[in-house]
Protein 1
Amino acid sequence: MMRILITGATGQLGEELQRLLPSLGEVVAAGRELVDLEQPDRLPAVVQGLAPDLIVNAAAYTAVDKAESDAERAELINAIAPGVLAIAARQLGIGLIHVSTDYVFDGSQSHPYQETDATHPLGVYGGSKLRGEVAVRNHCDHYCILRTAWVYGARGKGNFVKTMLRLGAEREEIRVVADQVGSPTWSYHLATAIAQLIPHFSRDLAGTYQFTNSGVASWYDFAVAIFEEAAVLGFPLKLQRVIPITTAEYPTPARRPAYSVLSCAKISAVLGTYPPHWRLGLRQMLQDLKAPS
C-alpha cells in the first residue's frame, strides 16, 4: 500500500486531502508539530523516518501582505523547505507534489497564463513561491509543481469567502476590489484533482501544471456571488450593498497581479476532465459550511 505524506495537513487544502487520499493508500497527515517547514534542517531526518512513497507539500506561508515585512519566514517555508523536501524525495526515490501559486506571475497579460509563460512575481510572497518552484525542479526529477489560485474552503483557517460572510453579517455595505481578475478555486476540487493525478504520477509526467476552477471573476464578482448564494442558503446577512472599487482605492502592503487566470489545459489532458466552474464550487462549499458538523 502506498504511504502518502501530506504536509500542511491542518490547512484548508490539507484537510480536504486527508479526506480524499485514504482511498489511494495510507496517509500520514503532518501538521507543524511533525513537519515544520520553518526548520528545514530537520526535514530530511523526519521524512526519512516516516518513509513515505509520495510527498504532497500543501504547506505554505500564504499571508501575502504580512510577507512584505516577514520575508525571512516566507523564504524558509516557501522557498528553502520545498528544496529540502525535493532532495529528500530524490534520495528516497519517491515523488513530490508541490503546490504553488498564480502570484509567480505579474498579471500584465490579458489571456490565461500557460505553464511556460515568463514568471515575474510582484511581491515577497510570489517571489518566495517562485524560488520554491525552482528548488523543486533543481533537486528532484520525479516532481509535479501544481499552481493554483484564489483558494478557499470550509475547513482550515480564514479565507475570502469566510471573511465576506463575517462582514456581510456585520455591515450593510462592503467595498470590494473590482479590477483584479482570477479564478476562485474550492479546496475540495483542488484536492480532488491531486487525488486524480496521483495514479498517473510518474517521472514521464514530471513538470509544472496548473489547476483552478474554470471561469473568471473579479474579487467584486466573487463577493456578489458569495452573498447571492449565501442568501439562498439562509446565512445571516445584514448586507445591503456591495460597492466595486479600484485597487488604488484599497492600497495593501503587497502588490497583486491584476490578471492571474491560469490555463488548465495541460492538467485537463492528463486527468481527462476539465475543472468545474467556480460558481458551482462556491455553492457546494457554502452548502458544506452550512451543514451540521
Protein 2
Amino acid sequence: MNPDETLALFDHEMREHARPDSPGTHVERVGGVVRQTGGADDWNGVVWTAPDLSPGRAESEIAAQVEHYTARGLGEFEWKLYGHDRPAGLGGLLTAAGFEAEPSETLLVAPVEGRSASVELPEGVRLRDVTDAAGVELMVRAHELAFGTDGSRLRHRTLARLDADPDTFAAVVAMAGDEPVSSARMEMYPGTAFAGLWGGGTAAPWRGRGIYRALVAHRARVAARHGCRFLQVDATDLSAPILRRLGFTALSTTTPYVYRTAP
C-alpha cells in the first residue's frame, strides 16, 4: 500500500465524492466544500474542503455553512478538518468563527487482505451480528458501557440504516453470557475501495483480552466478501496503538470542529 496514493484515493472517493451516511440525509458540493445535511439525529457537517481554498475564501465558506445549518434549526454541526487540508490555518479560522475543536484522531488505513484471520475470544464470550431491533439495543448498551455516552443517536441511525440499506452496513456485539461487553460497526460504500470501521469500544473490565482485535477481524471478513480493498478508521489514542500492531498505517489526522448554536 502506497500511503500517498491511498490518501489521495481516500480524499477523492470518501470526501470529495462522499455519499450520504444514513437515510434522510443528502450530500452536496457547494462552492469549495462538500457537506451533508440531515435531521437533528443525523450527522451534519462538512466532509471535504477544496485544496485550492484561499484564507479569504475559506472565511466566506465558513460563514456560509454556519448560515446553512443554523437556518435549519440544528443544534450543532461539524467541520471535519484533516491534517493535510488547506489553507494552512483553517483550524484557527474555524475557532475564530465560533467552532470548538474536539480531540484529534488518527486516520488509519490497512488493506483488507490479511486482516481477517480468526482471533481467539476470551472464554464465555461470543460474537452476535446485529440484524434487528433487539441486536441494536444490545449494541447501544455496549457502546454506552464502553464510552460513557448516551446512545440515543446511535440507536436512531442504526435502526434507520438496517431498515433502508442493510446490505452496506454491518454491526456486531461481543456477548459475555447475556451481557453485551463490546460492539462495533462498519460502513461499506459501493463504488469505492473503502469500508469504514466505527464505534469499536469495550467495557473497561473486558479490555486487553483480544475482543477489539476480534471485532476488527470479523468486520474484515465481511468487507472481503463485499469486495472492499481497504479498511479505514478514525482512531482514538486508545485504539490507534492496537490498530498499528494489526498493520494499519497512519495517513493523516482528523479533528472535529463543532459549531453549537445558542439554546
